[in-house]
Design a protein that fits this description.
Keywords: Signal. This is ABC transporter substrate-binding protein. Helices cover 29% and strands 22% of the residues. The radius of gyration is 19 Å and the shape is globular. The longest helix has 16 residues. By secondary structure, it is α/β, with parallel strands linked by helices. About 10% of the residues have low confidence.
Length: 309
């Protein structure tokens, strides 16, 4: 898989979905990434203090700037999205803040098109990319990846599944996906080859692609597409945010780790990995995941470039 991943994101709290006029409130997820209850964006997380040993690993230029500039596509709730005041919030944002604090820095999260984040790291526009990237061997050829979460591919249809779509037969169906994500790769590399082998029609255009995950959801709600595919916690969140207009199709599959993207060979990589592990060890990580109701995606060990596929 190649996530968000260039995967693996969703709905902005307080926004309205085009053509659906849906009021959004922060909710949680289920399936492979949560316990199924509601998120609590106002929940407090314990204060994070700097770790001198980890801070000593931060390169001099970053230390002098006093901040980590983080690229995120703020259309992928509950991981990264804009609240009703236009602030970028979500699981990844809280983790970015906590990582920076562990390193004696502050985090500056900047909204970016998903497909522009990794090129932005290469261009030194961002030090980190935290946007629900699935950690893959392909991605690790371009950037370092620090693992911090796990998620899988999931699907949704309109409530009641009016087109009677079978979970094991998506051939010929119109599937909405976000551009550059693992879900696009899944259709192109797995679903359509299987359809062709079975003598069935392929998913048109390897999926109906949109730059923003919010537009993916709108495409399904409006009836433009029959199915949407996204990361599991994003599907769960969309179902709740659309007030029951959607339902999950089948089970989450192909779970894989998310990774924080950094420049290949960056001396900052070890510092970030150490900060993530420290947050796991001291309980801050768990608090953040519980805040966004995605704790089922928790992992116990953060690693560098540990993709299995």
């Amino acid at each position: 898989m190649t996530a968000r991943t260039s995967r693996p994101r969703l709905l902005a709290t307080g926004a309205a979905l085009t053509g659906a006029a849906l009021a959004l409130t922060a909710c949680g997820s289920s399936g492979g990434s949560s316990g199924g209850g509601a998120a609590n964006p106002s929940a407090s997380v314990k204060a994070v203090t700097a770790d001198p040993a980890l801070a000593s690993l931060v390169p001099a230029d970053v230390k002098a700037a006093g901040k980590l500039v983080v690229g995120a596509d703020a259309s992928y709730a509950p991981d990264e999205f804009k609240d009703d005041k236009g602030n970028i919030v979500g699981m990844d944002v809280d983790l970015a803040d906590a990582i920076a604090q562990k390193l004696g820095l502050t985090a500056e999260v900047q909204n970016s098109d998903f497909t522009s984040i990794i090129p932005g790291i290469d261009a030194k526009k961002y030090q980190l990319g935290m946007s629900s990237f699935t950690d893959t061997k392909e991605r690790e050829q371009t950037v370092d990846m620090v693992s911090y979460f796990t998620s899988g591919i999931a699907f949704a249809v309109k409530k009641g599944n009016p087109d009677k779509i079978a979970t094991d037969d998506l051939c010929g169906k119109k599937i909405a996906v976000q551009t550059g994500t693992t879900e696009v790769d899944d259709i192109k590399g797995n679903i359509n080859p299987a359809c062709t082998k079975a003598g069935k029609p392929a998913v048109p255009n390897d999926g109906d692609k949109f730059d923003l995950q919010t537009d993916v959801t709108n495409a399904l709600v409006s009836g433009r597409d029959q199915v949407m595919s996204a990361d599991s916690q994003v599907i769960d969140y969309a179902i709740k945010q659309t007030n029951g207009q959607l339902e999950k199709l089948g089970e989450t599959r192909d779970s894989a780790p998310y990774g924080i993207a950094l420049a290949k060979g960056s001396p900052l990589t070890k510092a970030v990995q150490g900060a993530v592990q420290s947050l796991m060890d001291d309980g801050t990580y768990k608090q953040i995941l519980q805040k966004w109701n995605v704790e089922a995606g928790a992992i116990g060990k953060s690693e560098i470039n540990a993709a299995k596929s």
